[in-house]
Each structure stands twice: as structure tokens, then as C-alpha cells.
Amino acid sequence: MQKIHSLTLLLPIFLLFASCQSIDEKAEKIHNHAFTVDTHVDTPYHLLNKDFDIGVAHPFKKGGSRVDFPRMKEGGLDGIFFAAFTSQIERTEENILAARSKADELIDSIYSACTKNKDQAEVALSVADGYRIEKDGKRAIYIGLENGFPIGTEISEVERYYNKGVRYITLCHTSNNDICDSSTDKNGEEFNGVSTFGEQVVDEMNDLGILIDVSHISDSSFYDVLKLSKSPVIASHSCARAICDSPRNLTDDMLKALSKNGGVIQMCILDDYVKAPDTTTIGYKKELELRERYRKAGKMTEEEEQKIWDEWRQMQIDYPKDKPTVADAVDHIDHIVKLVGIDYVGIGTDFDGGGGLKDCVDVSQMMNITKELLRRDYSEEEIGKIWGGNFMRVFKRVEELASN
Ligand SMILES: [Zn+2]
């Protein structure tokens, strides 16, 4: 009798353990089968730091990089887009040239990192490259250009960046540029969407087979791009505005238009896009101050730029935020799937550009997203679509429609 009683007590514990284990195993299996891709990380800035070795696993440290090749493998991530990011400052000839050389330097650092670690990673230029590199048991490293600022008003620059391996361009960043209006420019809209030069850029990107990234662009720019582009587009790192009211996120109407276009939104895990921030904390005010200083600084020397980055890293240590969770982020996926179906959503974390959750701090913890999707009864096939199937479909279509 006593024996039966203790067994009865143990049963729920055993069942709980068994179900946890099966979710872990299922997640592992999905990551082994699917081609998984994160479409936006800002890791290249770390590559410029001579002391950072991307070929070695680093324990997670606040202010340190959230991405390296061994941790990508641990997190079951096959492909990634490294963003060559330049911030938007005053559009003078001198500043454009400086942004161009910075973007080139970042791109070159991606090639060097892959050459140095050729047993672990390789630069990928096409859909086929990604699958081949994965088969070889390596990480596929794609290149994105975050902000079209380095293009200036030189249309030939688009092809030069294509030839350097860039496969998506985020048309603008936090302020307007010569291509289009931004969703967060302090002075509002300048062109009411895409400029005349921007129309040429969209055309050229279509022709070359460069994905058009609508993250960061204003709502009117977004609708203009959908009208102008012959190919489907992506939002490489954005969320749903219905869940978190940020101008960086897409409204339900935009999500519907994106699905009609055949494009994809890659859910971002940057806290302020996942959940509205607590604007009363000292950390929030400090962050605003630093952003404002950075915006006003204009062209900076290497040392000045490094100083801002150091301050940014220190701020994360001194004023840790109460980050949202994987469950909060997956609420965005749920919303998008309910609204437009399973075929139009993926993942673009923005690691090293502000991305990271309480329970997904770095690329080694990516499977926590998969486990949450499994808990919410997404099937293996559906999760495969979210982890890369949808994005690669769009990428393939953009390649097919290019008229090289
Ligand atoms: Zn961004």
C-alpha cells in the first residue's frame, strides 16, 4: 500500500521530466533537419576589435558579443546575416565617403573572419551556397548592408556592394537618407516615402537580386516599396505593432500587405520592439541621452566612436534592463500567424545591436524559441518554416526574378 502511494506521488514528477525531455529532443531534431537562419546581427563591429576571436566560444558576458561560430553551432543555427551597419549622420559628401569606407571595412572583416576559421564558417552568396555550407557542417555567413547611407546618390554603388557579397540592403536607419524616409526621424518625413533616387535603388536591387529590407523605413516608404518592387521584400528585424506599439514594428495592415507581396517579417528580439519599455527607469533615461548624443555627434573619429561603444557596453552593465522573455517574443509570431498564416514570419534577432531576451541571451540559446513554439503546438514543419523555410523561399524568388 505504502509502495503504491509513493509511486503515485512520483508519477507526476516522472511525467513532467519525460515531457521536458521530449521537448528538448524535438527541438534538437528540428534544428538538425531544418536550415535555420537568423537574418540580422550586428556582430561585425566586434570583428574590428583585434582581441575578439569569433572562432572561439565565449561565455555570455554583458557588453560582450552574443555571437561566435561555436555558439552558433551549440544553438543549432546554420545561417546568419552579418550586418555591415553605418549610422545615419548629416548627408555631406565627406560623411558619405566615410560611411562607405566603414561599411567596406566591416564587410572585409567578415571575409577575414571566415578565412581565418574556414573549418567552421564560410561566406554564402546564394540560397544554394547556404544549403551546401550547412551540408559541410559549417555556418553559412551572409552579408547585409544596414542603412543605404554609404550608397549616397551613386547608383553604381548598389552593384559594387552586390559584388562585395551584400545580399540585402536595409534602405535606411534611424533617420531619413537619400533613398527614403525613416520610421524614427526626429524631423518627420522628407519625401513622403521613397525618393526619386530611392526608386532607382529599388529597381537596381530587383535587377541584381538583392533583397530589399523594409525594417527601419517609414510606413509610407514601406507602401511605396511594395508598389515599386517587382520582387518580394523582407523586414529583416521587426515585430508586430499590434503587440508592441513601436514605429519600428509593422501594423496589421502592413503585415497583410507584406503577405500579399509574398515577403516575410523576421521577428526581432530587441526588448523595446518586443514589449513597450518602462520609461521611468534611470537606465531608460541614460540610454536616451546616449542615443541623442550619438545622433548629434555627426562624423566621429575612430576613438570617439569607440568611446561611445564602450559607454554603451558599460551602460548595459550598470543599468541592466528587465528584459522580456521568449514567451513575450513568441506572442508576436502567434499574432502574425493568426493574422496572415504561417508562411510570412521568421527570425532576425538583432544580437549585438540590442537584441536579447531574459531566457535567450545569446545565439547558443536559440533553441529556447523552438521549445516555446513546440509548447504552443506548432508542428515540426511550421517551425521549419519560421526558422528559415519562409525566408529562403523569398530569397530564392528574389534570385529567380533578378535579370543578371
Ligand atoms: Zn536595426
UniProtKB/TrEMBL annotation:
It comes from Paralabilibaculum antarcticum. It comes from the Bacteria. Residues 1-18 form the signal peptide. Keywords: Signal. This is Dipeptidase. PANTHER family: DIPEPTIDASE, MICROSOMAL DIPEPTIDASE. The keyword Signal applies. InterPro entries: Metal_Hydrolase, Pept_M19. CDD domains: rDP_like (cd01301).
